[in-house]
Design goal:
Distance between the termini of chain A: 37 Å
Oligomer: heterodimer
Strand content of chain B: over 45%
Order of helices and strands of chain A: EEEEEEEEEEE
Helix content of chain B: under 10%
Number of strands of chain B: 11
Largest sheet of chain B: 6 strands, mixed
Number of helices of chain A: 0
Order of helices and strands of chain B: EEEEEEEEEEE
Helix content of chain A: under 10%
């Protein structure tokens, strides 16, 4: 079965640089979520989109922005990167709420 | 503040034993309670889920017990295997608003 695809899988950036993470949801899933997970922590919700519109916002820094495109893929844009942004970033997709299926994640390292 | 409280933080079980992880929530608006399994460096995988109108759900070796009045639910892993060693997260959800527990690191010793 098709799963959530995330790219890149690993990303190394320097402080103050910009990063763009991409997410391709499971076909026919209309909701996309972004999470940040630090070492030994639970996933922290950042933002979600339903039918290409932002549906909810969590603890997403103002330096981050995201959008969902007409083909339902989503991108998380992160600017002015800080050391503390180093984490695993997960995208999840859902067929109309509730069940969320996570992608393999992008490991972002900021040096 | 964690809206879903999960315990224990870590758990060591012998192969063939029963692993039990507990979660509690406060917000009665939650109406969907999934469990996720996560291996190091991987994404959380949906394991099993329950809705509050059911007191128990079983899928293979995994069982969720749900106590609506106590606002508690638990995951039981029967005949635990070394391959079950992972971090388990409980969660509670209202539509697309999902809150995770802090996670339980399970180690199953051969």
């Amino acid at each position: 079965a098709a799963g959530v695809i995330q790219s890149p899988r690993h990303l190394i950036k320097e402080k103050r640089e910009t990063a763009t993470l991409k997410c391709y949801p499971i076909p026919r899933h209309d909701t996309v979520y972004w999470y940040q997970q630090g070492p030994g922590q639970d996933p922290q919700f950042l933002i979600s989109f339903y039918e290409k519109m932002q549906s909810d916002k969590g603890s997403i820094p103002d330096r981050f922005s995201a959008q969902q495109f007409s083909d339902y893929h989503s991108e998380l844009n992160m600017s002015s990167l800080e050391l503390g942004d180093s984490a695993l970033y997960f995208c999840a997709s859902s067929p109309q709420g509730y069940e969320q299926y996570f992608g393999p994640g992008t490991r972002l390292t900021v040096t | 503040q964690q809206q879903v409280k999960q315990s224990p933080q870590s758990l060591i079980v012998q192969k063939g034993g029963i692993s039990i992880i507990n979660c509690a929530y406060e917000n009665t608006a939650f109406d969907y309670f999934p469990w996720y399994q996560q291996f190091p460096g991987k994404g959380p995988a949906l394991l099993i889920a329950i809705r509050p109108d059911v007191s128990e759900k079983k899928e293979g070796r995994f069982t969720i017990s749900f106590n609506k009045s106590a606002k508690q639910f638990s995951l039981h892993i029967m005949d635990s295997q070394p391959g079950d060693s992972a971090t388990y997260f409980c969660a509670a959800s209202m539509w697309d608003d999902m809150r995770f527990g802090a996670g339980t690191r399970l180690t199953v010793k051969p």
